[in-house]
């Protein structure tokens, strides 16, 4: 996947500048996660994110944006308002690194400084790849969960993602644009949080894998029954970012007006 994005970027660089502009910028804000430890609150912040992007604007409406985003997501059953979750007592944190390519569409004709409109709403859709590594705190130490196979399942270090969302941008002066954006990522994994299906049996009950698979005993609610529900049975996890963007557009003398 990284090679795929490199090729696409080189293709963009090879295009002529006629009727096109370059745009570079960054973004900051909050990250959100929807999965087995947060099943329904799509706006619940669970960490922070920051990113950079370079964009090729083909005309007043369409642009292709290459993004790199670093974000953190986390959830903790012990802080849940649902008693069943508190008794399950699982927790995780994850550092996400996303490389994605999105097609942006402006609803209004927009060129900073040169165009007639100073603002526009927009939507975007694309594809990308994200690396992830769920971890948790156990005995006051941070522990990586992937290699422990807490559900007896091996999963990778990366997942394909489909970014989608919407935003609003405003020309604050000159070639500078300030925006607000909300976007989510459909992923191809159910293990961003290391939780997916049912409780498994372990040959060594006191192993780290067994202890971190079932943490209900730490709060006096276990042990969990082998084969009983551990996750929410939804097939995939989601994550998202909502925050502010700031960008600068390079408009050439041959650009569209």
Automatic annotation (TrEMBL):
UniProt cross-references to Pfam families, sorted A to Z: DUF6089
InterPro entries registered for this protein in UniProt: DUF6089 (IPR045743), OMP/PagP_B-barrel (IPR011250)
Signal peptide bounds: 1-19
Entry keyword set: Signal
Keyword Metal-binding on entry: no
DUF6089 domain span: 3-194
Keyword NADP (UniProt): no
The protein's name: DUF6089 domain-containing protein
Source organism of this protein record: Mucilaginibacter conchicola
Lineage: Bacteria, Pseudomonadati, Bacteroidota, Sphingobacteriia, Sphingobacteriales
